[in-house]
Amino acid sequence: VDLSAQIANMSVKNLFLNASGIHCQTEQELDELMNEPVSGAMVTKSMTPKSRFGNPLPRYYRLANGSINSMGLPNQGFDYYMDYLKNHDQKKPIIVSVAGMSKEEDLEMLHQLQDNDDYQGLTELNLSCPNVIGKPQMAYDFEAADDLLHEVFSFYKKPLGIKLPPYFDLVHFDMIAEVLNKYPLSHVNTINSVGNGLWIDTNSETVVLKPKGGFGGVGGSMVLPTALANVRGLRQRLNDDIKIIGTGGVTNGRDAFAHILCGAEMVSIGTQLYEEGLQTFERVTRELTDIMEAKGYTSLGDFRGKLKVIE
Ligand code: RRO
Q: Is 97 a catalytic residue?
């Protein structure tokens, strides 16, 4: 079956990629993702102008049905990833994820990408990191997000998407879509982790993460319903030329199939990829292929966005 997909100038033979943050911080991790034979594209760890260690450890904890993290944007810094792009053959497209600590840092990195003639790929502006101390999730402030995008698109002419946090009220779907539809975005990637959850070890009566008193972003299969609602709700509201990367709660081919029914063009895998390793892509691709073959579908377009409702 045909699992190809397209976002702006990026064509892929397979719709799967890593979720940003998973296996994409160091050169070695990026190389391993690049050489993984199944996934069609990859995305970097969200980057800041200067490298960051991130939050104190422990900052990731495995849950029965997912994960909680408060990494705090650990990354090697913008120049490291630009050097990586320059010096490595791209066997698959790399999306550059940027997450400045301020509007000024976002604009600084986007100016550098705009001015870099060697870079023509997709960029994703992360407006939804839940874990940097004292920094709210920008995409929950609709006016601030609008102001930032207005300034960005005054100079940025290459393909640009944004990474969104989950929304939980249909009014908020309407509000963010109204902002996003004003701009020539290549895509939105939804969802980031469900921000500021809390897990407790009841034996020790203690939180499981050190940063922020234990609060962290929740991912994995427990967030699948929230992810599907956000893909579906945004697909129903966004202009057709804004594609959707579905992220959140994908552990198997059926979960990916559901994301595509909701309208996802591509699907990324986070917690499950972290826990299972790179062989996840081969397994999930095989499971999705099996479902499509059983249903007689030959391409993703046969069912993308064609979710049925009960009349
Ligand atoms: O590094 C993180 O703590 C982090 C980021 Br930037 C993000 O966007 N989402 C997340 O769950 N963790």
A: no
- Which residue's CA lies nearest to atom 7 of ligand 1? 129
Give yes or no for residue 251 CB within 6 A of ligand 1: no
Within a domain: 40:
yes
Question: 91-126 in b/e burial notation, b at 16+ Cβ within 10 A?
Answer: ebbbbbbbbbbeeebbbebbeebbeeeebebbbbbb
pLDDT digits (tens, 9 = 90+) for 122-161: 999 999 998 988 888 899 999 999 999 999 999 999 999 9
What is residue 136's predicted lDDT score, i.e. its pLDDT? 83
- 63 inside domain: no
Of 263, 194, 244, the closest CA to residue 223 belongs to 194
pLDDT in tens, 171-200: 999 999 999 999 999 999 999 999 999 999
pTM greater than 0.90 (yes/no): yes
Q: Quote the number of domains for the chain.
A: 1
Which residue among 128, 186, 193, 268 is the active-site one? 128
**Catalytic residue (choose from 129, 221, 262, 268):** 129
CATH number at residue 119: 3.20.20.70
Nearest atom in ligand 1 to 217's CA: 11
